[in-house]
Design goal:
about 30% helix; Peptidase C1A papain C-terminal domain-containing protein; cysteine-type peptidase activity; six-stranded mixed β-sheet; 9 helices; Cathepsin B, Chain A
Length: about 375
């Protein structure tokens, strides 16, 4: 039987499906994006002294970006210019040009948009947000398995999927079920907390499937961040050790129960108090690991029968995705195998759009 801690490292064996992501408000987003512009060296061009920015103003587009996302680099309101804000505008302009160029190419099958990360270079985005790593033990155990994956790509899928629907998503659960998928989260800047959100959400979703008819109840990410010493809070963690902690702890608290004892709006707050007196609502009956070589069918069956599945992905360019389908040509192999995994997500279903098949993971970067 599948557990609420079902995990999968990859879901592209046999090359029959693209990778997608769920976000808010758009229902489908790509997970593994086209490698795009490098503007990490923009700071090298900023040679003026801070005082030389007196009287300078920002462009209208950047002013709108700062107002929309509450950015205030220099203090005193977003209209003030200083060295930091001028550098961020320079990076913003490079990203704006790249997004416009991408969207102007009719050959691209997906669109990009400027997100709240538009003031970050690609290198900065990776450093600040994509530091999730799978456990060392799992990396070692998967080395031989990874080496066999290239031979499987493009091969005939193992087993027919005729008994499975062309489209399925727990965001629109079958008759008789309540809500199964938690709301899309928005993890903090400069906090690699995706592991905690995915671990908590997979527990919540699995129990919503088990208790057919009941709506999903969010579990406490804050408790994982504060109490799970197997993992490292904002300095990343992984779902394997988080599930182990939940089991050894005797369960985990709901978000509402933990927040009553440990107030605070931010869930991924590693400085929050670890309160061991909070009522533990749910535990995990165990965990099973989906092999990369098992192919698409194994993941599809696990999702449909057990609920959303925790996955590790390479998301180096998740900065500006907007809509459409990312195909394999736009998301080449990362080259470092299992070591290329740098983000955790929860895959909630799959689908097909004009003949193109895709997976539907949920990310933790909000809308």
């Amino acid at each position: 039987s599948h557990s609420l801690g079902t995990t999968a490292h990859t879901h592209t064996a046999h090359g029959t499906k693209r990778l997608m992501v769920r976000t808010a408000p758009a229902p489908l987003l790509a997970l593994c994006l086209l490698a795009i512009w490098g503007c990490a060296d923009a700071a090298a061009h900023m040679t003026e002294h801070p005082g030389s920015f007196a009287g300078k103003t920002h462009g209208e587009a950047f002013m709108g970006f700062m107002a929309r996302h509450g950015k205030d680099y220099c203090g005193g309101g977003h209209t003030r210019a200083c060295e930091i804000s001028m550098l961020r505008e320079q990076i913003f302009n490079l990203n704006q040009e790249a997004v416009a160029a991408h969207n102007g190419n009719p050959g691209n099958t997906f669109r990009m948009r400027l997100s709240r990360f538009a003031d970050l270079s690609e290198a900065e985005f990776v450093t600040l947000h994509l530091t999730h790593r799978p456990s060392a033990a799992k990396v070692a155990s998967l080395v031989s398995e990874v080496s066999t994956v290239p031979a499987l790509l493009g091969a005939t899928p193992q087993g027919s999927n005729d008994d499975l629907p062309a489209q399925f998503s727990w965001t629109d659960p079958p008759a008789g079920y309540g809500k199964v998928v938690t709301p899309v989260h928005n993890q903090q800047d400069i906090c690699a907390s995706c592991w905690a959100f995915v671990s908590a959400d997979s527990v919540a979703s699995r129990w919503a499937v088990i208790s057919k008819g009941s709506d999903v109840e969010e579990m406490s990410v804050k408790q994982l961040m504060a109490c799970d010493k197997r993992d490292n809070g904002c300095n990343t963690g992984n779902m394997y050790t988080a599930y182990d902690w939940v089991s050894e702890n005797g369960g985990m608290a709901t978000r509402s129960d933990y927040d009553k004892k440990v107030p605070g709006d931010t869930q991924d707050d590693e400085s929050a108090t670890c309160d061991t007196s909070v009522h533990l609502s749910l535990t995990t009956p165990g965990m099973c690991d989906l092999k990369m070589t098992a192919g698409n069918r194994a993941l599809m069956v696990a999702i449909k029968e057990s609920g959303p599945v925790a996955i590790g992905i390479n998301a180096n360019n998740l900065q500006f995705y907007d809509s459409g389908i990312i195909d394999a040509a736009s998301c080449p192999p990362a080259g470092r195998g299992i070591q290329s995994i740098n983000h955790a997500a929860l895959v909630v279903g799959w689908g097909e759009d004009e003949g193109q098949k895709y997976w539907l993971p949920e990310k933790s970067y909000g809308g």
